[in-house]
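User: Working on a comparison across species. This one is Ubiquitin carboxyl-terminal hydrolase 47 from Oryzias latipes. Can you predict its structure so I can line it up against the others?
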Amino acid sequence: MAPLEHNSEMSLSESGFDSGGKRNFLQLTDRDGEQPQIASDESGAADSSGLEDSSQERFIGPLPRDGSACGSGDYSSPSYSYSSILSKSDTGYVGLVNQAMTCYLNSLLQTLYMTPEFRNALYNWEFEDSEEDPVTSIPYQLQRLFVLLQTSKKRAIETTDVTRSFGWDSSEAWQQHDVQELCRVMFDALEQKWKQTEQADLINQLYQGKLKDYVRCLECGYESWRIDTYLDIPLVIRPFGASQAYGSVEEALQAFIQPETLDGPNQYFCERCKKKCDARKGLRFLHFPYLLTLQLKRFDFDYTTMHRIKLNDRMTFPEELDMSPFIDVEDEKSPQTESCTDSGAENEGSCHSDQMSNDFSTDDCVDEGICLDSTSSTERAFKPKSLLTFELFSVMVHSGSAAGGHYYACIKSFSDGQWYSFNDQHVSKITQDDIRKTYGGSSGSRGYYSSAFASSTNAYMLIYRLKDPSRNSKFLAVEDFPNHIKSLVQKEKESEEQEKRQREIERNTCKIKLFCVHPVKMMIESKLEVHKDKTLREATEMAYKLMELEGVVPLDCCRLVKYDEFHEYLERSYEGEEDTTMGILLGGVKSSYMFDLLLETRRPEQVFQPYKPGEVMVKVHVVDLKSETIAPPISVRAYLNQSITEFKQLIDQATGLPAETMRVVLERCYNDLRLLYVPNKTLKAEGFFRSNKVFVESSELTDHQVPFTDSLLWKLLDRHGNTIRLLVLLPEQSPGTLAIRPLCQKGGEDSDGAFEGSQGNRKSVEAILEESTEKLKNLSLQQQQQGSSTSDSQKSSDTSDFEHIESPTQDADSNSSLCVAADNRELENRIRATPGGSGGASSDNENQFACEERSDSEVNNDRSTSSVDSDILSSSHSSDTLCNADSGPIQLANGLDSHSITSSRRSKAHEGKKETWDTAEEDSGTDSEYDDNGKSKTEFKYLYFRAEPYSQDDASWETQKCLVVYVDKRITLAAFKQNLEPYVGVPSTQFKVFRVYANNQEFESVRLNETLSSFSDDNKITIRLGRALKKGEYRVKVYQLLVNEPEPCKFLLDTVFAKGMTVRQSKEELLPQLKEQCRLDLSIDRVRLRKKTWKNPGTVFLDYHVYEEDISISSNWEVFLEVLNEPEKMKSMSQLAVLTRRWSPSTMKLGPFQEVILESSSVEELKEKLSEISGIPLENLEFAKGRGTFPCDISVLEIHQDLDWNPKVSTLNVWPLYICDDGAVVFYRDSTEETLELSEDERNELMKKESSRLLKTGYRVSYSPRKEKALKIYLDGGPVKDPGQD
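Assistant: Here's the predicted structure for Ubiquitin carboxyl-terminal hydrolase 47 from Oryzias latipes:
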């Protein structure tokens, strides 16, 4: 790629550009290590946001994306204006920022702000610092907000201070509430805060009206009534059960005051007539507030679907509303009444104080004998019609459904009569047409289904103001503000200016990641924030202090260099640019940088090496083949065009190794080793990049004469690249050092040479391993002499092929590790620790290991059985079945013998032997290291393993012993476990491996064939004692079925079942465990196992059933154990076990469960059995199948009519019964038994008891998509009970 000369006069086509619409590419690069410069335009005008010189108008490079804050910060397009984002709307109004779901709050706040009377009254209130904390003062925070809305130059301001004064935390911002509910709660909170002030009655004066709730006898004319107050009028959109909605607000208001007639069973008891009479019940408005609030009840409940719905029907509302037709004019003619009791108002539009609004009246709830014409409200009630005209000025709109949506407000300014849309931070002008669009509905007729197809954006709350020139106010101008508001304005202005200055500083601050190799703290990371006009020298001093190097390294021994953390590459140094500004060096102020900075340090006698662009960094590791060690890296910088010979000479200067005999190996990527042997080949051709790692070795050994992949150097590097460091937590041991627990021997075996633990004087770890290694060697030689099947590689193996195992020791002076000759085959042979290589099978459990401990899953059944991943949680097992191809079964260390993998459990059952259950197929959920002939399925290689004690600092690992294990991650889990045997103290078949994840979650590693490749350095592993599963075995969770207990499913223990095992044999193994662990002493003939599907009891397993043949079984299987009161009656698969329960209507009770065994699926047989156990005559017996999951609970108040009693079928396995398996629940009753008559109180009491009982069993759990949180404003600033809300 040829560079283009900037002063060339050649045309673009002459320079090589393709014409004809073809795409051309330009690459901008540093020239001689210098950054691209800023070019000025012809006018030489400078962008005020850029550098101070005149050459900073345009940045040579790609243009920033639209909407982004310009990728190059200040070096940006001149059309970009940072302030344009923050400037006020051209309407002159300021928006409110939506915190998350606070649009309903923003709509109400903007409406209150645009109400002159409310805003002016709020300004006239003065906050007293001495009386209250300003943070928790709601009126003060509202006052601040209104001042900012009126004077701020921002486009939108935050409401967090207001919500904080409400006592809300950040979670409240994610709760959407009803705007009308918020209005009530906020007004109540303001009333509480304004007590004993001039604004104490402000809410009542502006928003409170009065109405009369009356009942009038139609026979004598007697009227009982009471006065209620209201803050808003709820208007029904569509009457209950109606097919059409009201078409206008006037129509809904007329329906609101329309009386209803109480007749028939709803007759009213007249105090004058002393009898029940027909009456008329209704509401009358006595007084309308100055600010009239109408709530359109668009949210309803659909009793068909049992869900909340939103009614989107069209409802028009006028710009001017005449309320005179709705005022009461008959109050003077009302007869003398007595005090009103409960008026019995059941109309949805009733306006009782507890249904409509908080009662802010100081009057009693019941007004007795009021003379209406003597009250001020009556005077207002008979005002001329022209004084009852209200003008619309706020429409709060909801867009969405009953499940959620968005609020915004359309508000008319009383200053200019213009309508504006206040949609969170956006404020814009709108027209009357936009207001009419909020009517809702569609253009068609108002039919029943019109709401479903209508627009979801419609008016929800309307606020009108009374047209009364004597009361209508104008907004206070800034010059007319009270003194305390002027002070507040000045204070907020200064705060905003300070924020602006701080924002300007932030705009000009470069924020870049900074690293430092601290002499004490090693590599540390921080963030350097430096102004773009600061010089490199000043930035270095800031970084020096930030990294706390004062007193550790002199300042003149530090410098900042360009650094690539990902590649660990030092890109370049800045020699001679100490006075250059950071804005130029870093390429401008950016939100993120593609590089980092490194604060490099040196010793006083050293000199900094210059880093030039184009150089590559090489980390050189010196390898010593004699000690088999690899030294820490030395950094060397080279050029990509250097040859291998020149590169070796460079390394010679850095390390002192002779270049003549030097071997250089490049690690290009993970474990990809490349020997650099071509002298004239360049580094670039060999694959060098920005940051590289090489290993060098220069010795007189003949290792360089063999092929590289067969050399000792390659093996050492291969081991180095694949070795990981694991922290292994061992199980609890007896007090003392990391002594090895003795391998348990079979009874009667020769324990000579074993671990002499019984004599109390344990041998050292080294002695134990040395002794066991000799035995392994001898055993391996014996096998070869006997003609045992071994591979060629095994036959030629010698001590050089053995793994390195370093025993744990407390001797700090011992640096040499014990090298033990054993490949994976020999390691597996450790479990055959006795000279008697072959022998007969043992037939008793006594041959199990004497030191076998209780499985961890038996202690804590939850730790290893979390349902995260079936692969991860497949039960562990061990490959302890070592079969000899030529001779008989080889006796295993646990006393069991191994049979051919194809042997059937059932064919061996007659031999009377206790066998290992190793007959599972390949897909049984567990693995084996061996094939069907017992041969190893994997080719074993030299794999590294070394362990040493670890003094842990993890508090959770304090009480147990811990190892640091260095292991080749290509080792299989089986070989890894066998390497751990000397440290755990038991064979690998007797312990399990758990991998520890985040939050200390543990999951068992079970795939013995898999390697440790998924592990990484410092992963934690926990070892737990307990027999690991063998091939074909499954861990099973056993639960007790207690059909008549409140909790019918009780966990007992974990056990092991295997393919080929019969149900009776599994019972035989299970009963001793139940006696030991659960203290259940049971007889095998009184115990039943049955299928468990969640909590439902299913098929009864018969004694002769065989797992995996008759019964499907899987990992982490669950099974029910049922204790029988009599010997098992289930003998055949044709039988059916049904759980029955009697329902007694006369006592309203359910009897206990009783099991019925049927010989067929006949309904007649079921009835006969039920008649037999209950004594109910056959012709009177009725039954019904239970619903849901076991125990099929149902309320005794509903069972009589809710179940399908006495279905007309002859067999159980057809609709509607479908009883085809054991465990079905059947209720039955006597059809002649009368149902108990209950009083209302008795029914309510029984309903409560049933609800409590059924709630515990999970009966009829109702679906709730989101739990709604009650809207509260906390007057003390915290979420505690507010007495004002009671």
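For your comparison, note: The CA atoms of residues 907 and 972 lie 34 Å apart.

User: Helpful, thanks.
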